[in-house]
Amino acid sequence: MALREIVHEGDDRLRKICRPVTDFGPKTQQLIDDMINTLQATSNGVGLAANQVGIVKRIFVIDFQDERGLKVYINPEIIKTEGEQVNTEGCLSVPGWWGEVKRPRYVTCRAQDREGNYFEVTETGMYGVCLMHETGHLNGELYKDHVIPGTMYRDN
Protein backbone atom coordinates (compact mmCIF):
# COMPACT_ATOMS: atom_id res chain seq x y z
CA MET A 1 0.00 0.00 0.00
CA ALA A 2 1.13 3.51 -0.74
CA LEU A 3 0.11 6.99 0.30
CA ARG A 4 -1.40 9.01 -2.52
CA GLU A 5 -1.25 12.78 -2.73
CA ILE A 6 -4.58 14.46 -2.01
CA VAL A 7 -5.40 17.00 -4.71
CA HIS A 8 -6.81 20.37 -3.70
CA GLU A 9 -9.50 22.70 -4.94
CA GLY A 10 -8.49 24.11 -8.30
CA ASP A 11 -7.38 20.72 -9.67
CA ASP A 12 -9.63 19.97 -12.67
CA ARG A 13 -10.05 16.32 -11.66
CA LEU A 14 -12.20 17.38 -8.70
CA ARG A 15 -14.74 18.87 -11.11
CA LYS A 16 -15.01 15.89 -13.46
CA ILE A 17 -17.83 13.36 -13.35
CA CYS A 18 -16.06 10.14 -12.46
CA ARG A 19 -16.17 7.08 -14.72
CA PRO A 20 -17.90 3.88 -13.57
CA VAL A 21 -15.70 1.01 -12.46
CA THR A 22 -16.05 -2.08 -14.65
CA ASP A 23 -12.80 -3.88 -13.82
CA PHE A 24 -12.38 -5.06 -10.22
CA GLY A 25 -8.91 -6.49 -10.91
CA PRO A 26 -5.50 -5.82 -9.34
CA LYS A 27 -5.21 -2.15 -10.40
CA THR A 28 -8.56 -1.32 -8.81
CA GLN A 29 -7.67 -3.30 -5.68
CA GLN A 30 -4.35 -1.42 -5.40
CA LEU A 31 -6.13 1.92 -5.77
CA ILE A 32 -8.59 0.97 -3.02
CA ASP A 33 -5.75 -0.13 -0.71
CA ASP A 34 -3.88 3.11 -1.39
CA MET A 35 -7.02 5.17 -0.73
CA ILE A 36 -7.57 3.38 2.59
CA ASN A 37 -3.95 3.94 3.57
CA THR A 38 -4.14 7.61 2.55
CA LEU A 39 -7.39 8.18 4.47
CA GLN A 40 -6.03 6.51 7.59
CA ALA A 41 -2.93 8.71 7.42
CA THR A 42 -5.01 11.90 7.63
CA SER A 43 -5.66 13.51 10.98
CA ASN A 44 -9.29 14.47 10.44
CA GLY A 45 -10.68 12.73 7.37
CA VAL A 46 -13.54 10.21 7.45
CA GLY A 47 -14.06 9.82 3.71
CA LEU A 48 -11.98 9.93 0.55
CA ALA A 49 -13.08 9.80 -3.09
CA ALA A 50 -10.85 8.51 -5.90
CA ASN A 51 -10.76 11.87 -7.68
CA GLN A 52 -9.33 13.38 -4.48
CA VAL A 53 -6.23 11.31 -5.20
CA GLY A 54 -6.34 12.19 -8.90
CA ILE A 55 -8.14 9.09 -10.24
CA VAL A 56 -11.43 9.88 -11.99
CA LYS A 57 -13.27 6.66 -11.05
CA ARG A 58 -16.46 6.10 -9.05
CA ILE A 59 -14.91 4.85 -5.80
CA PHE A 60 -14.86 6.21 -2.28
CA VAL A 61 -13.99 4.89 1.15
CA ILE A 62 -15.47 5.86 4.53
CA ASP A 63 -14.08 5.09 7.97
CA PHE A 64 -15.68 6.65 11.03
CA GLN A 65 -13.63 4.22 13.15
CA ASP A 66 -16.80 2.86 14.75
CA GLU A 67 -18.71 -0.42 14.77
CA ARG A 68 -19.46 -0.14 11.03
CA GLY A 69 -15.76 -0.34 10.23
CA LEU A 70 -14.15 0.81 7.03
CA LYS A 71 -16.43 0.61 4.01
CA VAL A 72 -15.63 0.70 0.28
CA TYR A 73 -18.25 2.12 -2.11
CA ILE A 74 -17.86 1.50 -5.84
CA ASN A 75 -20.28 2.95 -8.41
CA PRO A 76 -22.49 4.39 -5.64
CA GLU A 77 -25.94 5.79 -6.34
CA ILE A 78 -28.07 7.73 -3.90
CA ILE A 79 -31.45 6.07 -4.41
CA LYS A 80 -33.51 7.72 -1.67
CA THR A 81 -33.32 10.72 0.63
CA GLU A 82 -35.66 12.04 3.27
CA GLY A 83 -35.83 14.96 5.67
CA GLU A 84 -33.13 17.54 6.21
CA GLN A 85 -30.36 18.47 8.60
CA VAL A 86 -27.65 21.11 8.77
CA ASN A 87 -24.09 20.20 9.74
CA THR A 88 -20.62 21.65 9.56
CA GLU A 89 -18.57 20.11 6.76
CA GLY A 90 -14.95 20.29 5.74
CA CYS A 91 -12.94 18.50 3.08
CA LEU A 92 -9.44 17.11 2.67
CA SER A 93 -9.34 18.80 -0.75
CA VAL A 94 -10.30 22.18 0.74
CA PRO A 95 -7.99 22.24 3.78
CA GLY A 96 -8.58 24.74 6.54
CA TRP A 97 -12.11 25.71 5.51
CA TRP A 98 -15.47 24.71 6.99
CA GLY A 99 -19.09 25.56 6.22
CA GLU A 100 -22.68 24.78 7.14
CA VAL A 101 -24.44 22.55 4.61
CA LYS A 102 -28.07 21.42 4.45
CA ARG A 103 -28.34 17.75 3.51
CA PRO A 104 -30.99 15.04 3.78
CA ARG A 105 -31.46 13.46 7.22
CA TYR A 106 -31.81 9.93 5.80
CA VAL A 107 -29.82 8.66 2.83
CA THR A 108 -30.09 5.29 1.07
CA CYS A 109 -27.13 4.39 -1.10
CA ARG A 110 -26.72 1.43 -3.45
CA ALA A 111 -23.14 0.51 -4.38
CA GLN A 112 -20.75 -2.33 -5.05
CA ASP A 113 -18.08 -3.61 -2.69
CA ARG A 114 -14.49 -4.25 -3.76
CA GLU A 115 -15.45 -7.66 -5.19
CA GLY A 116 -18.30 -6.17 -7.25
CA ASN A 117 -21.16 -7.39 -5.02
CA TYR A 118 -24.08 -4.98 -4.71
CA PHE A 119 -25.27 -3.73 -1.32
CA GLU A 120 -27.53 -1.01 0.08
CA VAL A 121 -27.23 1.06 3.23
CA THR A 122 -29.53 3.61 4.82
CA GLU A 123 -27.74 6.06 7.09
CA THR A 124 -28.55 9.13 9.15
CA GLY A 125 -26.52 11.82 10.87
CA MET A 126 -22.91 12.43 9.90
CA TYR A 127 -22.56 9.08 8.13
CA GLY A 128 -25.41 10.04 5.81
CA VAL A 129 -23.77 13.43 5.31
CA CYS A 130 -20.55 11.67 4.38
CA LEU A 131 -22.35 9.47 1.82
CA MET A 132 -23.76 12.60 0.17
CA HIS A 133 -20.43 14.47 0.39
CA GLU A 134 -18.39 11.65 -1.18
CA THR A 135 -20.99 10.90 -3.86
CA GLY A 136 -20.91 14.61 -4.65
CA HIS A 137 -17.15 14.35 -5.26
CA LEU A 138 -17.78 11.61 -7.83
CA ASN A 139 -20.23 13.94 -9.58
CA GLY A 140 -17.69 16.78 -9.77
CA GLU A 141 -19.03 18.70 -6.77
CA LEU A 142 -17.37 20.13 -3.68
CA TYR A 143 -19.20 20.70 -0.41
CA LYS A 144 -18.54 24.42 -0.92
CA ASP A 145 -21.08 24.30 -3.77
CA HIS A 146 -23.77 23.61 -1.15
CA VAL A 147 -22.67 25.82 1.76
CA ILE A 148 -25.37 28.03 3.23
CA PRO A 149 -24.37 31.60 2.26
CA GLY A 150 -22.42 33.41 4.98
CA THR A 151 -21.46 30.27 6.92
CA MET A 152 -18.02 29.53 5.42
CA TYR A 153 -15.11 30.01 7.81
CA ARG A 154 -11.40 29.25 8.14
CA ASP A 155 -9.58 27.31 10.88
CA ASN A 156 -8.17 29.51 13.61
Automatic annotation (TrEMBL):
<dbReference type="GO" id="GO:0042586">
    <property type="term" value="F:peptide deformylase activity"/>
</dbReference>
<feature type="binding site">
    <location>
        <position position="133"/>
    </location>
    <ligand>
        <name>Fe cation</name>
    </ligand>
</feature>
<dbReference type="GO" id="GO:0006412">
    <property type="term" value="P:translation"/>
</dbReference>
<dbReference type="Pfam" id="PF01327">
    <property type="entry name" value="Pep_deformylase"/>
</dbReference>
<feature type="binding site">
    <location>
        <position position="137"/>
    </location>
    <ligand>
        <name>Fe cation</name>
    </ligand>
</feature>
<dbReference type="InterPro" id="IPR023635">
    <property type="entry name" value="Peptide_deformylase"/>
</dbReference>
<comment type="function">
    <text>Removes the formyl group from the N-terminal Met of newly synthesized proteins. Requires at least a dipeptide for an efficient rate of reaction. N-terminal L-methionine is a prerequisite for activity but the enzyme has broad specificity at other positions.</text>
</comment>
<feature type="binding site">
    <location>
        <position position="91"/>
    </location>
    <ligand>
        <name>Fe cation</name>
    </ligand>
</feature>
<dbReference type="GO" id="GO:0046872">
    <property type="term" value="F:metal ion binding"/>
</dbReference>
<keyword id="KW-0408">Iron</keyword>
<dbReference type="InterPro" id="IPR036821">
    <property type="entry name" value="Peptide_deformylase_sf"/>
</dbReference>
<keyword id="KW-0648">Protein biosynthesis</keyword>
<keyword id="KW-0479">Metal-binding</keyword>
<comment type="similarity">
    <text>Belongs to the polypeptide deformylase family.</text>
</comment>
<keyword id="KW-0378">Hydrolase</keyword>
<feature type="active site">
    <location>
        <position position="134"/>
    </location>
</feature>
<protein>
    <recommendedName>
        <fullName>Peptide deformylase</fullName>
        <ecNumber>3.5.1.88</ecNumber>
    </recommendedName>
</protein>
